[in-house]
DNA sequence: GCATTTACTTAGAATCATGTCT
DNA sequence: AGACATGATTCTAAGTAAATGC
């Protein structure tokens, strides 16, 4: 603690100081009080600090403050059901800057003719021009949607004239944008510093709120800037104009007795309400989807953390009841009720394959994706036998975010027979489970166990898989790199189960080749080191000269170091290769009970920051604090 | 009962910052 | 010291599930 204070520039090791322990809300704070310094010592010790040092001290001070503010909310008492807070105060959301018109000399051309666009048409045209390098702008749906909405922003004259997107030339706008990006990249250190400080100021003012007695970080305090809607996959609304949000669109939620945030000058909020049964601080309706967007707290907050903890506790409860539940749905496969059988098969998939529930969606409003309950006949193929296995179901469908789920799974005879039955006399586009939806499924699940829903199975199966895999893949005898590889592999098993994919990084091939080259280089070095060692040994043999023995020892150490480094790189290469198209972060952040990882680190003597970065450690502070070696999920 | 609305979690891509190498 | 790669952070879309409205 003193060390931190010293680094922060608020204390020097030569400074006299006192500290006291302050207990507040079950949390012990250490408070420093610096004693007044004497004049002479001041002069002799003081060295002119450079700008950087001052800045570094400042950020450290801030960090210190944040750490002190970190509350052990998990040791506090909980409110009655449904109440999320008793006091909430904040500054309202931060609005993006107004549109800045393009320089006069920039031109837009229609059909080869120069054309000066009005401000509104220009702004929306620029949104499109900025995206020209993106594949989006070549898609028919995107172009049509953009053009339709763009024309709405035009003056009558503009609209009369501009009737064909193909005849539009946004070239100068596009180049202007590219130039801006370039300039941004080439900013000097000083410019970057100025911008950083300005940003920090905004975060300091708008990025925090007071929730009960705690100062909490807000997750998304910035209003989403206007632009063109970028839906995922084959989204029917891609390219539509996402309009600028004004204070008049925003609902503020805060305490009655708090200082209500001021709307930007000349504006008013849509509404100010005081609803302490919800966690959001502000909300607005998005014009593209008609969905409500919320300003909420950061993941390290009490409200989010408590919910997260609760989620894993429910999943752990499932662990102790899952055998009975499985027996039940296996039994239900034989039910006389078609609905019950469909429910049983759906549950079998959700449990075995960690599929999502699959709510129904409004047709034409979103991309065509499905989950378990919304699977259609066309999404599965039945094989009586395939690759030497019997009763194989071949899945091929687009799930959340249009990520393809492709899997060939052997199932029990009874499940297989049921699927055949469900598919009888149906068209490819018909629902596989026509007598089932997520509401019915969840209602049934909650009758089996309080709090049980379809997604609890995903959480449970993910966490239990991590725990099992860690047990299987790692042991205390492995070296550090191997331990981490085993952790990543356990994590990877979960990511594969949950179908968390990513586009391979752009530079993947290159970086793989680079690493491979490094490995080759190291290998040669190792051969050399081995030869030298051999030589040294030979020379030292039968010779009691301590100098020669010393040389042998030195060569041996060099060889070993080389070997270690080689191994580390090889492990890294393996890890990277296996991870090419798999995203680990989603499962790490949302599905894996952090207590499993914390306990594993303790048992394996692996530093926690090897598996969780700072943000993740903040998010999982509750787990880090409460988890012992013997934790079992 | 259902469709709709609301509130919240989960998701991958894009962007930004930092560390490493030359 | 600049280029580049990598990891961290930001962004906001897209899910789940419960409440509400009719």
From TrEMBL:
What's an example GO cellular component term for this entry?
A: nucleolus
What class does this enzyme belong to in the EC scheme?
Answer: isomerase
Q: Which residues form a coiled coil?
A: 47-77, 178-205, 512-579
User: Which Pfam family, giving just one, matches this sequence?
Assistant: Topoisom_I
Query: Is-annotated flag, keyword DNA-binding?
Result: yes
Q: Where is the active site?
A: 591
What does the record give as EC number?
5.6.2.1
SMART domains per the UniProt record, alphabetical: TOPEUc (SM00435)
Q: Which reactions is this enzyme annotated as catalysing?
A: ATP-independent breakage of single-stranded DNA, followed by passage and rejoining
Taxonomically, the superkingdom here is Eukaryota
The alphabetized UniProt keywords are: Coiled coil, DNA-binding, Isomerase, Topoisomerase
Q: Which biological processes are named by the entry's GO terms?
A: chromosome segregation; DNA replication; DNA topological change
Q: Name one GO molecular function term.
A: DNA binding
Q: Which residues form the DNA topoisomerase I eukaryotic-type domain?
A: 228-605
The family classification in the record reads: Belongs to the type IB topoisomerase family.
The UniProt function text for this chain reads: Releases the supercoiling and torsional tension of DNA introduced during the DNA replication and transcription by transiently cleaving and rejoining one strand of the DNA duplex. Introduces a single-strand break via transesterification at the specific target site 5'-[CT]CCTTp site in duplex DNA. The scissile phosphodiester is attacked by the catalytic tyrosine of the enzyme, resulting in the formation of a DNA-(3'-phosphotyrosyl)-enzyme intermediate and the expulsion of a 5'-OH DNA strand. The free DNA strand then undergoes passage around the unbroken strand thus removing DNA supercoils.
Please identify the protein, giving its name as recorded: DNA topoisomerase I
Q: Which gene encodes it?
A: zgc:173742
């Amino acid at each position: 603690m003193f060390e931190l204070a010293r680094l922060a520039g608020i204390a020097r090791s030569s400074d006299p100081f006192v500290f006291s322990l302050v207990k507040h809300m079950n949390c012990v704070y250490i408070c420093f009080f610096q004693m007044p310094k004497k004049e002479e010592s001041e002069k002799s010790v003081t060295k002119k600090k450079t700008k950087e040092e001052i800045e570094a001290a400042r950020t450290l001070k801030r960090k210190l403050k944040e750490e002190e503010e970190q509350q052990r909310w998990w040791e506090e008492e909980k409110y009655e059901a449904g109440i999320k807070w008793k006091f909430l105060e904040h500054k309202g959301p931060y609005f993006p800057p107004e549109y800045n018109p393009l320089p006069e000399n920039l031109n837009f051309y229609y059909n080869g003719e120069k054309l000066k666009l009005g401000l509104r048409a220009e702004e929306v045209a620029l949104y499109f021009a900025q995206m020209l390098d993106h594949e989006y702008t070549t898609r028919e749906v995107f172009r049509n949607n953009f053009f339709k909405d763009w024309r709405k922003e035009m003056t009558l004259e503009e609209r009369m004239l501009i009737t064909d997107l193909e005849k539009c030339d946004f070239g100068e706008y596009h180049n202007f944008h590219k130039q801006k990006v370039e300039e941004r990249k080439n900013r000097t250190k000083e410019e970057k510093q100025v911008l950083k400080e300005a940003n920090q100021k905004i975060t300091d003012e708008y990025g925090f709120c007071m929730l009960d007695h705690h100062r909490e970080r807000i997750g998304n305090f910035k209003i989403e800037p206007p632009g063109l809607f970028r839906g995922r996959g084959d989204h029917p609304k891609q390219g539509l104009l996402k309009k600028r949000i004004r204070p008049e669109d925003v609902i503020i939620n805060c305490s009655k007795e708090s200082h209500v945030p001021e709307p930007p000058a000349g504006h008013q909020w849509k509404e100010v309400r005081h609803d302490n049964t919800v966690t959001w601080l502000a909300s607005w309706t998005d014009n593209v989807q008609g969905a409500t967007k919320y300003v909420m707290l950061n993941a390290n907050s009490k409200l989010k953390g408590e919910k997260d903890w609760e989620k894993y506790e429910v999943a752990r409860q499932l662990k102790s009841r899952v055998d009975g539940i499985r027996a039940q749905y296996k039994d239900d496969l034989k039910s006389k009720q078609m609905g019950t059988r469909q429910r049983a098969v759906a549950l079998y998939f959700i449990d075995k394959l960690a599929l999502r529930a699959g709510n129904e969606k409004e047709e034409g409003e979103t991309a065509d994706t499905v989950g378990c309950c919304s699977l259609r006949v066309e999404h599965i193929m039945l094989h009586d036998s395939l690759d030497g296995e019997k009763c194989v179901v071949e899945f091929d469908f687009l799930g959340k975010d249009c990520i393809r789920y492709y899997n060939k799974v052997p199932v029990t005879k009874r499940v297989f027979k049921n699927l055949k039955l469900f598919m009888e006399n149906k068209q490819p586009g018909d629902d596989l489970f026509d007598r089932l939806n997520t509401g019915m499924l969840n209602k049934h699940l909650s009758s089996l166990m309080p709090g049980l829903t379809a997604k609890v199975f995903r959480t449970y199966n993910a966490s239990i898989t991590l725990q099992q895999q860690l047990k299987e893949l790692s042991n205390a005898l492995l070296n550090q790199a191997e331990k981490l590889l085993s952790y990543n592999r356990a994590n990877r098993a979960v990511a594969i189960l949950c179908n968390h994919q990513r586009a391979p990084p752009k530079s993947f091939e290159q970086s793989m080749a680079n690493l491979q080259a490094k490995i080759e280089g190291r290998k040669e070095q190792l051969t050399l080191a081995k030869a030298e060692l051999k030589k040294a040994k030979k020379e030292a043999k039968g010779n009691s000269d301590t100098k020669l023995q010393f040389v042998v020892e030195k060569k041996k150490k060099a060889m070993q170091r080389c070997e270690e480094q080689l191994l580390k790189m090889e492990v890294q290469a393996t890890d990277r290769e296996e991870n090419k198209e798999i995203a680990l972060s989603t499962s790490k952040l949302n599905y894996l009970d952090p207590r499993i990882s914390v306990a594993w680190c303790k048992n394996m003597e692996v530093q926690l920051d090897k598996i969780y970065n700072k943000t993740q450690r903040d998010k999982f502070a509750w787990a880090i604090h409460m988890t012992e070696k013997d934790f079992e999920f």
